[in-house]
Structures are given as structure tokens and as C-alpha cells.
Design a protein that fits this description.
- The complex is a heterodimer of chains A (about 270) and B (about 70).
- Helix content of chain A is about 35%, strand content about 15%.
- Chain A contains nine helices and ten strands.
- In chain A, the strands form three sheets. Chain A has a five-stranded parallel beta sheet.
- In chain A, strand 6, helix 4 and strand 7 form a beta-alpha-beta unit.
- Chain B is mainly beta.
- In chain B, about 10% of the residues lie in helices and about 45% in strands.
- Chain B contains one helix and seven strands, in the order E-E-E-H-E-E-E-E.
- In chain B, the strands form two sheets. A five-stranded mixed beta sheet of chain B has the order 2-1-7-4-5, with no helix packed on it. A two-stranded antiparallel sheet of chain B has the order 3-6.
- In chain B, strand 1 and strand 2 form a beta hairpin.
- The chains are: A alpha/beta (about 270), B mainly beta (about 70).
- Chains A and B meet through strand 4, helix 2 and helix 3 of A and strand 4 and strand 7 of B.
- Strand 4 of chain A pairs antiparallel with strand 7 of chain B, so a sheet runs across the interface.
């Protein structure tokens, strides 16, 4: 048997090379042990975290997330989840940078309302401008609007991250053609962030030519998060390879796979 | 003196450095940020920065999130 080893092209973000194109969130897991096990199964090298007050209650000297996920080994991507205006988002990034000893890579998300968790674009642009000026490496969560995506790239964001569907909805890719248009016009990595529900959703994202996928709920809230993390790893890899391989054009009618010549039936 | 830590009122016996305050609170996590009255105090100043009466302190860390 001949074994074909397919090498995935490395993916560069903020001057660092990544083998995995899957970025995972660390929210909604049962405990830190499960978070770490899912991270291992997913093969992700970058993880998102949220920035919140230290719990001064009973568990104050207990373990914390970064005891399980070593910032020396993984790229920690702090988010601004829960921010509804640019001011709070900027303050969160500054605090995140202090927590992570001066690192300036951030995931900017400025939300519009609690029901849709849709991005507030006016505030996102305001925050992105200020953060880029202040030297932050901004990966920005946005809508699937190609004009907005280009604007965020022009501001200097290092990656633009449009949604596939609302955060935590699991609805999968809702607007393929907009994502395609964003990918075609982009000169920074496009990473779909939010909306993936299952493995095929992640493959579709990659088959469209996106550079990566970011997800949390689809893995953390699956019946078996560890198994789903493995499925997502494979789905992202296979979707990426299928994109590189180039799919066949879609046809309206059949096209026989077996030769037409050499048939031995008499009544043809 | 009275200070507020993450919005909770605490009574502390006299002025205290951030370093000593963190030991008093038994916080061992090295990945934290401390804000005093909305100004971030860099880790290099924890030994020398003295918390005063009525200061509003936020102690923040990384938690699970997407």
C-alpha cells in the first residue's frame, strides 16, 4: 500500500506559523480538564479567552484557566466579548495585554444587542481604529458584509472574521456568496467566526477558501465535546484540502463515470 | 481603611501595597491585571504602589470564552 502524506500549508498570523487552521474558544466546558482534552483533540494552536473579574469567593486560590492552557505553548487570543461600545472594548484589550505580559494580539468584538449578538459595526470600526493606532494586532469579528470587511482590513486589522451565523446558533454557513466575495477581495486572512454547528459546516467554510475557522459552542456543547473536537479537526483539514484540490463544476445532468466505448450489448 | 475590590467593600488595616493585597486575598494567579480607579497598574509596580482609602480596585483575569 502506498501512503500519501498530504502536507497542509502553514498559516501565518502576526508573524507566527500555525499548522492548524482551527481556533477554538474555551467557554461553556464542564471544567478545565475537559477544556484541555478538547483542545488536545482539536489540534488547535490558538485559543480564545474572555476577560473577567477574578472570583474572590472560595475558589480564589484554586486552579485557573491558564494553569491548564499554557500561554507559552498556545497562542492566547483574548476577546472583548460582552462589550457593547468601543470604550469598553478598548479598555478590555488594554487589561488583556497587561494580563498576558504585554502581548498585543486581540479578538475585537463589539456587540449590538444581547438577542442577536450581532456586531455593532460603527463601534467596531471606532475601536479598531484606536487599537491599530495603539499597536494592537486586531483580529476582528464582523458581519458577512464585504464592504465592511474591506474597510476593517484597510484600517489595519490583521485578520477579518465574519460570522457564518449568529454566535452559538449552530446554523452553519448562511451566506456563502458574501463569504466568497469577502475571501476574493481580501489580502489578510479571513477566518469565519461563529455559527458553525457540526463538522460539515466547518468543511464548507474551508471549501469557500477561508483561511481558518473559529468556534466554541459547536465543540463545547456537543454531547461528546472531545469527539466533536476530533471531528472538527478533520473537517477543517479536509475542507481546506478540497479547496486546494479544486472542486468540479456543477452540472445539471449526469456524466457517466464508466467508458461509453467497448460496450458488448447487441441492441445499441 | 475602606477599599472596594471588584465592587466588594473590604476593610483593610492601614495602607497596603498591591503585592501585599494580593497575598492577603490569596491570589496566586500570575496572569492577572490590576486596575486602581480605572488606571492599570503594571506588574512591575505591585511592590511599590500603595492602595489608599476609598480606592476602587479591579482584579481581572482570563476565563473561558469564545
Amino acid at each position: 500500500m502506498q501512503l500519501v502524506v498530504v502536507k497542509l500549508a502553514k498559516f501565518i498570523l502576526d508573524k507566527k506559523e500555525y499548522t492548524s487552521r482551527l481556533i477554538i474558544g474555551t467557554g461553556k466546558y464542564k471544567d478545565f480538564k475537559q477544556t484541555k482534552a478538547a483542545l488536545d483533540a482539536s489540534g488547535a494552536e490558538m485559543v480564545t479567552v474572555a476577560i473577567r473579574r477574578v472570583n474572590l469567593g472560595q475558589e480564589k486560590s484554586g486552579p485557573n484557566l491558564l494553569d491548564y492552557i499554557d500561554p507559552e505553548r498556545y497562542t492566547i487570543l483574548p476577546n472583548t466579548a460582552g462589550c457593547y461600545n468601543s470604550q469598553d472594548a478598548i479598555r478590555t484589550c488594554q487589561i488583556a495585554s497587561e494580563i498576558l505580559n504585554g502581548k498585543k494580539l486581540v479578538k475585537l468584538e463589539v456587540l449590538g444587542d444581547k438577542k442577536t449578538l450581532y456586531p455593532n459595526i460603527a463601534e467596531t470600526i471606532k475601536a479598531a481604529n484606536a487599537l491599530v493606532k495603539d499597536g494592537y494586532k486586531v483580529m476582528v469579528y464582523t458581519t458577512d458584509d464585504p464592504i465592511v470587511a474591506k474597510e476593517l482590513e484597510n484600517i489595519g486589522c490583521i485578520s477579518v472574521m465574519p460570522l457564518a451565523a449568529p454566535i452559538g446558533s449552530g446554523l452553519g454557513m448562511q451566506n456563502k456568496y458574501n463569504i466568497l466575495s469577502i475571501v476574493e477581495n481580501a489580502s489578510v486572512p479571513i477566518i469565519v467566526d461563529a455559527g458553525v454547528g457540526t463538522a460539515s459546516d466547518a468543511s464548507i467554510v474551508m471549501e469557500l477558501g477561508c483561511d481558518g475557522v473559529l468556534m466554541n459552542t459547536a465543540i463545547a456543547c456537543a454531547k461528546d465535546p472531545i469527539l466533536m473536537a476530533s471531528a472538527m479537526k478533520m473537517a477543517v483539514e479536509s475542507g481546506y484540502l478540497a479547496y486546494k484540490a479544486g472542486r468540479i463544476p456543477k452540472k445539471k445532468y449526469a456524466s457517466a463515470s464508466s467508458p461509453i466505448e467497448g460496450n458488448f450489448f447487441e441492441n445499441e | 481603611m475602606e477599599i472596594y475590590i471588584n465592587q466588594e467593600k473590604k476593610i483593610i488595616d492601614g495602607e497596603i501595597s498591591i503585592n501585599n493585597l494580593l497575598s492577603f486575598l490569596e491570589i496566586q494567579n500570575k496572569y492577572i491585571a490590576v486596575e486602581v480607579n480605572k488606571t492599570i497598574i503594571p506588574k512591575s509596580e505591585y511592590k511599590t504602589f500603595i492602595v489608599k482609602d476609598n480606592d476602587k480596585i479591579e482584579i481581572i483575569n482570563a476565563v473561558g470564552g469564545g
